[in-house]
From TrEMBL:
Belongs to the iron/ascorbate-dependent oxidoreductase family. Transmembrane segments: none annotated. The keyword Oxidoreductase applies. This is Fe2OG dioxygenase domain-containing protein. One of its GO terms (molecular function) is metal ion binding. Keywords: Iron, Metal-binding, Oxidoreductase. PROSITE patterns: FE2OG_OXY. It holds the Pfam family 2OG-FeII_Oxy. InterPro entries: DIOX_N, IPNS-like_FE2OG_OXY, IPNS-like_sf, Oxoglu/Fe-dep_dioxygenase_dom. The keyword Oxidoreductase applies. It comes from the Eukaryota. GO terms for biological process: small molecule biosynthetic process.
Amino acid sequence: MSEKAAQFPLVDISGYINPTSPEDKAQVVAQIRDAFKTFGFFQCTGHGVPVSLQRAMFKSLERFFSLPKEEKMEISVLKSPCRRGYEASGAHSRDGKAMPDAKESYYFCEDDPKVEMGGIYGPNQWPPLPEDEFRQPIWEYYKKTAAMGKLLWEILIEGLGRSPSTMERFSKRPLIGMNLLRYPSPADTAEGQFGLGAHNDWGGITVLLQEPGKEALEIWLEDEKEWVSVPAVEDRFVINCGDMLSGWSGHTYKSVHHRVVNKAPVERYSAVTAWHGDIFATNPFEEPGTSKETVGHLFVKRFQKQLKPSKALLAAIGVEA
C-alpha cells in the first residue's frame, strides 16, 4: 500500500447506527463530512452488511458471468425498455476515449411490475439461474446496501447542518441502481484499454465493494497530480460522491475522478450500489421551494444523448423535448 493510500479516510459508522451517546453519532457525521470535503470518498466499516452475504454475492457474480455469452445476451440491456440487464465487454465507450471499457456488467434496480416514467421505473431482467444461486443473495445484498446509501445521505445532510428528517421528502421513491461488474484479466485486456475509463459519477452516493485482494480502483489526487490505488479489503466498502451531490452541497463535498485498472493476474469482480434520490426531489441542503432543479432534471441532462429519454419522461419531469 502506498503512503497516499494509507492516508485514505477509514470510517467506522457503527457509532451512528448503534450509538451509546450523542457524541458517537456526532463523531461519525464529522468524520464523513471531513472525508468528503477532503477526498470525495472514504472507506467504510461497521456497516452491518454480513461478510457471509458479501461472499455469497461475489459467488453469484461468478455464476452469472460464467454463463455462455449467448445466454447472457438473452437479457441484454437493449431488450429492456428500462435498460436493465447484461452489457457485454466493449459495449460501453466514453466520450473522447479511443477504446471502450473492458468490463462486463449486469444492471438492475427496484423491481417494479410495469414500465413507468419512460423506463425510469419498471421490471428487471433476471438470468436463467436457480433463485438461491443468484437472485436471492443478490437481492438481499441490494437491499442492505440500498439501506446503507440512504443512511449515508442522511449523515451527509446532517453534516451540513440540515435535519436528517429532510430524507423523508428526498426518498419517497428513490432511484437506486446496482451494477455487478466483471473485469477481465490484464492478459485478456487490450493494450491501453481500461477496465473502466476515468470518470466522475453523475449522481448521489456510490457504495462499492471490491473483490478482496484484487486492487483495481484508482483515485485521482488533484493536488499530487497522480493516480493512487484504493486497497481492496474484505468487509470494507468504498463510498464516493457524485456530481449531483457535490453541486448541491456547493462543492463542499467533492466529486472524485476515478478509474479501474485490474492489477490482479486473473479476472476480478465488484458491485456498485448507487443511491440518487426521488426523481422529483430537489436539493436536500436547501429549503423546499428554493430551487426547482430535481434529481430527474440532472439525470436527463447527464444521459440525454446516451439514453434518448422518451417524450413521456421529459414531460413528466418538466423538461422540453
